[in-house]
Amino acid sequence: MSVRQLFNKLPTSILVVVLSLGLSACGYHLRGTNNNANLPDQINVYADDQQLATSIVNTLEKAQVETTLAQYSTSTDNSGSNTDKPDTNVAGLRFINTKSNREAVIYDVNGDATHWRYSINTEMLLGTGDKGKSFKLQEYVQIELDPASGAGSTNDRITTSTWQALYQALAHQAIRILGNQP
Q1: CA distances from 13 to 40, 49, 116 (A)
Q2: Can you give the pLDDT at residue 170?
Q3: CA–CA separation, 168 vs 174, rounded Å?
Q4: Where are the beta strands (DSSP E) in 7-90?
Q5: DSSP character for 17?
Q6: 74 vs 124: which has the higher pLDDT
Q7: Strand, coil or helix: what is 63?
Q8: Which pLDDT value is given to residue 132?
Q9: Tens digit of pLDDT for each residue in 14-73?
Q10: Are residues 122 and 95 in contact, defined by beta-carbon separation less than 8 angstroms?
């Protein structure tokens, strides 16, 4: 019996139900696994950028991971004066060399920038001490701003929300990597 003959014999409603069940089963398998299952119960975090630290801590806490920010420790340098430096070697999750950048990429006929590229780059280290795994993370977005707008304008709100979204995306990227670790 050919497929065409089989379709002619089956009522349309049964065919619709079978196809619906088949497609919904595919969606279940395609959605992926929950990466939060591999997250630690608690972790110490250090970030050299305060906004990144806040985004990381908030994202980890939403995933029900108890988070502690690495504290600054006071030490004495060779000249005898006190210096504050982060106690980064005790943090299991560290973000160093974080750089945020804003650059104009498209200009209008008057030479005013209309499109901007916002980017954040950081290095994520997993594990304490010098034996951690290193990952380079980057997030960027290009937005259009009105060059005629002044201070306190919609452009300022767009810029603020763009930075927040970038830091949040970077935090989610870091949590996905952390969740995929054995």
Answers
A1: 48, 58, 53
A2: 93
A3: 10
A4: 42-47, 66-69, 72-76, 82-86
A5: H
A6: 124
A7: coil
A8: 75
A9: 656 666 666 666 554 444 445 556 788 888 999 999 999 999 999 999 998 899 888 644
A10: yes
Nearest to 63 by CA among 173, 170, 182, 175: 175
Distance CA(101)–CA(118), nearest Å, equals 6
63 burial (CB, 10 Å; 0-12 / 13-18 / 19+) is middle
| 131: pLDDT strictly greater than 90 | no
Q: What is the pLDDT of residue 26?
A: 59
Outline where DSSP puts E strands in 35-154.
42-47, 66-69, 72-76, 82-86, 93-107, 113-126, 133-144
pLDDT at 150 over 70: no
At residue 180, what is the residue type?
A: N
Report the alpha-carbon distance of residue 182 to residue 59 in Å, rounded. Answer: 20
CA dihedral sign, ordered 36, 129, 56, 69: positive
Residue 124: name the closest of 40, 64, 41, 49 by CA. 49
What are the structure tokens assigned to 119, written together? Answer: 């980017």
**CA gap 18, 67 in Å, rounded:** 47
What the block records as the tokens of 7 is 């379709």
From the CB of residue 82, how many other CB atoms can be counted at a distance below 10 Å?
8
Give yes or no for a contact between 166 and 118, defined as CB atoms under 8 angstroms apart: yes
Both tokens of 55, joined, read 């985004």
Q: In terms of Cα–Cα distance, which of 37, 26, 75 is closest to 176?
A: 37
